[in-house]
What does this fold into?
Amino acid sequence: MIWRIILGLYMLLVTVATFLYAPPALGLGDLSRIIYFHVPLAWVGVLAYLFSMINSIHFLRSLNPENDYKAAVNAEIGLAFTILATLTGAIFARNTWGVYWNWDPRQTSVFILMLIYGAYLVLRSSVQDSEKRGRLAAVYSIMASISVPFLVFIIPRLYSTLHPDPILNTSGQLKMNAQMLQVFLASLAGFTGIYYWIYNLELRYYKIKERKEAKQEHD
Amino acid sequence: MTAQLNCRHLKKSYNGKVIFQGISCTCSAGEPFVVTGPNGAGKSTLLKVICGLLRPTAGSIELEIDGNTIERDQLYGHVGYVSPDMNMYDNLTAYENLDFFAAVRGNPMEKAQIMDILELTQLKEASHKFVGHYSSGMKQRLKLAGALLNNPRVLILDEPSTNLDTKGKNLLKEIVADRKKKSIIIIATNETEEVALFGQSLLQLGNTPGRAS
Amino acid sequence: MGKVYCNWVTRLAALVKKEILEEFRTRYAINSLLMFAVTSLVMVSFAVGVSTLSSALHASLLWIILFFASMSGVARAFVKEEEKNTSYALRLAATPSIVYLGKLLYNFIIMSALTLLVLLLYLFFLNPPLGNIPLLLLVVPLGVTCLVTAGTTIAAIVAKASSQGTLLPVLAFPVLLPLFITVIHATRITLDGRETAEIIQALLFLISYEVVILTASLLLFDYVWND
It folds into this structure.
């Protein structure tokens, strides 16, 4: 309970800091402030996918319904975060390059992640039996994740990019000054905290539901 | 030449709803094992779990044939199964069906052997007709024929007399009597006269889920 | 060891033979795919009219047609077992790897015939530039092989999920995307008649994609096929 309030205050502070404390990036102006939201959103989208897949693999080994539930919850959270990342990315693209969408490699990657999440959740909703649902969804999740490294390899070779360098670019230089970096890392931590909070809530809900069902079975 | 099947504390639930639980039994060759109970008691599900078509939610099944333990994923070819939920291919003839199932198991059979089984189940004249054109009684006899391919050591018969006339029922009785020495036979039925017909070892599944007596 | 291998081939052959026999009795897949290929090609050629297309557009159109054709072709193989309640009998008789490879081979045979037809009709209706025919005849079959491999696995998932094929394109697309990007690019290069290092890279990419997807499918199919 107390952590929820602390997290709320913390995110408020980070949001204020992005507008007042961090200086605008050279050449991009105030628009650059969107990276304090866009990059953490995309990061959580990828993180949730990773956890979803790890839980899928665990589920296939153990058939423990809890693993399946964790995989599904991560996919739901991940979908929401990738949608937000895609939207914030499109706003940034519109205002710097003049178009919402230009098949930039990184834009495309997040978009594909969104498609995978969507397909995964559609598949889940079409199966009645819970164990079967878990197995089929886990297999699909693994199949889909196999295609991701191929995309990472192929897309940058065929489509040129206008996207600003990733934070840690190939030459290992940081293109942020100290204040920007502070806010950026604080925001990254904050969004990861939000992700963890939502995840934990869902998990607690699951545990309560399970306990209730177990009780009903005994009666 | 022994065959024994041990089920321990079998439980199956579907979407959190328990279909049956706590079922332990030992079936061996020599005496057919009969499972009874009203509709919806979980007879078919239990049989599917035993022959490996469904995973048990809890519990274990052990099959021992002539001193060798057979794992769940090596059941292929050891089990003959007849069930209302299972069909043969409508677009193949009876002969082609049996030929296919024998070959895909890795034990291709000579034409004469297949015709012998078809003769036993009184389908010899219709062996080159498409199964789609069969009457339901003929289809049921073909399923029996399919279950007898490669002389399986476990025969699992779910409502085997469905759609069979008196002649067909006698045939079924003969087959069971003929095979019971060598094979484990498990029969699910809810017709009381059949229970007495096939054997004494009995498992009665109750109407209330989860209570087996 | 040799005997085991021989036995394995016999079992696989039995399954493929059964699939082909069933197909030739009903002609369901053949007829619907034939009509699909003709309809979509005629539609495209009407839409294009007399204007000439760039090789990039030719490559894209060809693979869009092949994608949707293969989705409707591949879907049937598992759905029909579920529809007709024959899957229990097959599951008790055959090991999962035999089932997967048998269905894959059958799908491959059907799709090869369909691809040949689509290619010929495409040449007939849309008259694309043909820069490097031998290379095209290498790229297209390789691409179709990848398409069928991934498609068969996803089709098995869909058949178990809803026993209808409607979900298939939605689920298959993200998995097939790297294949599409590469194969469309490679097809464009061959239509242009350029012979560059890029095409070698694309071919190697397709081969590695096929190997990875096939391995994963064989490992995971058991979880899809058995309840």
User: Anything to note?
Assistant: The helical segments of chain A are 2-20, 35-62, 65-97, 105-125, 130-158, 178-218. Chain A touches chain C through 26 residues (CB under 8 Å). Chain A has one domain: 2-218. Residues 178-218 of chain A form the longest helix (41 residues).
